[in-house]
Design goal:
- There is one protein chain.
- This protein is an alpha/beta fold.
- It has a single domain, classed as Spore Coat Polysaccharide Biosynthesis Protein SpsA, Chain A, CATH 3.90.550.10.
- Strand 2, helix 2 and strand 3 form a beta-alpha-beta unit.
- The radius of gyration is 18 Å and the shape is globular.
- The protein starts with a strand and ends in a 9-residue tail after the last strand.
Length: 273
């Protein structure tokens, strides 16, 4: 049984470290990479196909025909990996490898050794090491997010937005059965769904926030200043949807709208996103 790693990609043609991904595929046999092209406007899909062709049994590519956001990309990858039947653990990392494979492997080892845990996620804020590098603006945005997120979650999580998380495959239906309301703050929605599923009394026994040894902000981030300034509104929208509209038919109708995708890899009969 393998660990599936989802790599959401949007306009990554020039930033993707092809060599790093190919080396990982060639040296690791217990992992399956699942790249998800989120309607990129550049030549990202062709770059991903070349990586996939290097080893079709270790790499899959999901091509979303229209840009739908990181939330939809990760969801499509998670549901595909869950459908394969050969994946025990599912996780995701950023395409720029701001969190490297060594740190991801550390998260996975923690999850494997503690049977009570359902998810382990990286943290750039907890017990910060010298290997964590942020620019001043992103650090300020992180503090704003942290304050507002605590009001919504009521959980002592230092860093919900780290792009490195791994969880047991059986958690996929809990987290990804429905679409997310947010395009890129979906991590908060994942924690809200787990809190409801496990209960607020036991949720902290099922998740673990693990400090990263290395994390470097790569320039040309897809999260711009305008997006950052909209964070309070987006968070309020998440709170409203999960506390007011969650059981209304209007919300359920929105959840049924699915993106059009094409899958390159094996098996070819995986379910749609």
């Amino acid at each position: 049984m393998k660990t599936g790693i989802i790599v959401p990609c949007y306009n990554e043609e020039k930033r993707l470290n092809i060599t790093a991904f190919l080396n990982f595929v060639q040296t690791e046999n217990d992992f399956h990479l699942c790249f998800v092209n989120d309607g990129s406007k550049d030549n990202t899909i062709e770059v991903l196909k070349k990586i996939q062709e290097a080893d079709p049994f270790k790499v899959s590519v999901i091509d979303m025909k229209k840009n739908a956001g990181k939330a939809s990309a990760v969801r499509a990858g998670a549901r595909y990996l869950h459908s394969r039947g050969d994946i025990d653990f599912v996780g995701f990392i950023d395409a720029d490898l701001s969190t490297d494979f060594k740190d991801f492997d550390g998260l996975l080892k923690t999850l494997k050794t503690n049977k009570k845990l359902s998810m382990v996620f990286g943290s750039r804020a907890k017990n910060v090491s010298k290997g964590i590098e942020k620019d001043a603006m992103r650090a300020l945005f992180s503090k704003i997010i942290k304050m507002l997120v605590y009001v919504i979650l009521r959980l002592p999580i230092e860093d919900t937005q780290c792009g490195a998380k791994v969880f047991r495959t059986e958690l996929v239906p809990v987290l990804f059965n429905k679409k997310f309301f947010s395009r890129w703050l979906f991590d908060i929605e994942m924690f809200l769904r787990m809190k409801k599923y496990f209960g607020k009394a036991t949720i902290l026994d099922r998740i673990y926030e693990q400090p990263l040894k290395r994390w470097i902000h790569v320039e040309d981030s897809k999260l711009g200043l305008k997006d950052s300034l909209e964070i309070p509104y987006r968070l309020l929208s998440i709170w409203f949807n999960y506390n007011i509209l969650e059981n209304l038919s209007y919300a359920n109708q929105i959840q049924n709208i699915e993106p059009t995708i094409e899958i390159f890899g094996t098996p070819t009969n995986a379910i749609a996103a």
